[in-house]
Amino acid sequence: MARNAHPEVTRRRILDAAQKLFSEKGFEHTSMQDIVNELGNLSKGAIYHHFPGKEAILEELTHRDWEASHGLLDELRQRTDLTGLEKIREVIRRSVTSETHLDIQRDAAQFLEDSTTLAHNLQSWQTTVADGFHTLIMDGVKDGSITTEYPREAAILLSLLLNYWVACAPTAADTEPRTRCVATMLAAIGLPVFNEELIDLTVRGFQAFNAPSFYPEPHDTADDRNR
């Protein structure tokens, strides 16, 4: 068999196909055979050569999503037409209105039931993700749009509460009161990031995130049982 001269291209095609199917059918209802069928010209063995299973594919999609978010932070840091507060609002606005981002996070959220995965995410939210918010908060302190005396703590609270407490609310009905609670808490320590417009966008985004699945029921094929 000829060696694949562009393995990174093949990996990207697999990821793109899987992302499309996860969005349409849901992670649980997508089999490796579905991904093979979507690609059309790759065998299941070729996919397993790049990824040991669909969990690894989802992990790579999550990593790719994070890289896109990191790129957004870099883009906003360079902008001089926005205050630090406005930059934070823009980060949140894009996150809660991006169907691609919300689809990936919805699929990944089910693995938070695993204590090791939850611990890893909690650590990431209060370090790596909070670092990005902290940089923008400090921009806001410098330009006067943010008055908090607790910039680091505010960044951690924003990251943890938004990514876990609000995003993983038990039901969609819990999303609005939790969002308003976070808005009130942050405003009380000098970070009034949530205006009514952003509250509304956040509530609608995370209510969709927490809504019951509308994915079609899969046919119980042999491949589904052995995926």
Task: Give structural notes.
With 227 residues, the protein is an all-alpha fold. It has 2 domains: 7-54 and 219-225, Homeodomain-like (Arc Repressor Mutant, subunit A, Orthogonal Bundle); 57-210, Tetracycline Repressor, domain 2 (Orthogonal Bundle), CATH 1.10.357. It contains 11 helices and no strands. The protein is elongated and about 55 Å long. The protein starts with 6 loop residues before the first helix and ends with a helix.
Layout: helices, strands, pairs:
Layout: H1 7-25, H2 32-39, H3 44-50, H4 54-77, H5 84-97, H6 99-109, H7 115-143, H8 151-166, H9 175-188, H10 196-210, H11 222-225
Helix pairs in contact: 1-2, 1-4, 4-5, 4-6, 5-7, 5-10, 6-10, 7-8, 8-9, 9-10
Secondary structure tally: strands:
0
Instruction: Tally the structural domains.
Output: 2
The CATH topology assignment of the largest domain is: Tetracycline Repressor, domain 2
- Helical stretch tally: 11
In the CATH hierarchy, the architecture of the largest domain is Orthogonal Bundle
Unreliable spans are 213-227
Structural class by secondary-structure content: mainly alpha
What is the CATH class designation of the largest domain? Mainly Alpha
State the major sheet.
none
Percent strand: under 5%
Mean pLDDT: 87
> N- to C-terminal separation?
26 Å
In angstroms, what is the radius of gyration?
Answer: 20 Å
Order of helices and strands: HHHHHHHHHHH
Q: Looking at the structure, what is the overall shape? A: elongated
The helical percent reads over 70%
GO molecular function: DNA-binding transcription factor activity; transcription cis-regulatory region binding
Domain HTH tetR-type: 8-69
InterPro entries: Homeodomain-like_sf, HTH-type_TetR-like_transc_reg, HTH_TetR
DNA-binding region: 32-51
